[in-house]
Amino acid sequence: MNARFTSLLVALALGATACGSDEPDAIPTESAGAAESTTPDDDRTEDDMTIEITGNITYRQRVALRPGGTATITLEDVSIADASSTVIAEQVIELDDQQVPIPFELTADRSDLEERNTYSIRATITDADGRLRWTTDTANPIDSTQSSIDVGDLVMVQVQAPGDDTTESTEANALNGTWTVTDVDGTPALENVTATLTFDADGRLSGNASCNDYSGSYVIDGNSLTVGETVSTLKACAPEIDEQEAAVFQILSEATTYELVDANTQLRISTAAGATLTARR
């Protein structure tokens, strides 16, 4: 075999080997993580989809709520002036022996809220007969972009229907003013010593107990009277004055009922043990 023929065979063999080793280019693939796609909604939690509103409803008067009433707290859309509000969320609390402040918690679906609209919290209390007794009378706006809001205390005002003489406001107003003590548990008050009781509309009781000035709080419910803890000055007086003062403080601290007589010009406060404190306007 000559050299030329041998070279040709070698060339053909090398070409066949090269052709046999050719493979198509690899097609790049994305990693599993890169292949997945997400939308903003996939990352939303339950907190993002609701709005939680907490607070307390209360009022300033020292008047007890009677059992059987109902408190209603609503989140309302008040965007349109002079139009009925749209209720977005509501909580109804049946009142047994609860007294203010009364906590509440509202939960609203964020899909029911429009960012450009205005929302406010409203609170009412109705009595056992369904009559409105207390209501908020001012706007209590919220920031609807927040997911959790504490509005603090919502202060209500009292509602009195025309001709309604049985409301707590009538009872409280009858006590309002300053009374001068005339009798302490059956004993006439000391001459030249003035003991006083001043009942304010906001539930504050103050005055002079015979020697020392004092202040505290009170709550009425019907003819029931409860006097809260009082604070007083610490002057020392003559023994008979100190004795009368101690009796005044004792009756006030144990008071359970009160009675108005003589066209509401005389006040008689009584304890469960039968001790009495009498005063006149």
Automatic annotation (TrEMBL):
Residues 23-47 are annotated as: Disordered. It comes from Ilumatobacter coccineus (strain NBRC 103263 / KCTC 29153 / YM16-304). The keyword Cytoplasm does not apply. Keywords: Signal. Residues 1-18 form the signal peptide. Residues 175-277 form the DUF306 domain. InterPro entries: DUF306_Meta_HslJ, HslJ-like_sf, Hsp_HslJ-like, Pilotin. This is DUF306 domain-containing protein. PANTHER family: HEAT SHOCK PROTEIN HSLJ (PTHR35535:SF1). The keyword Signal applies.
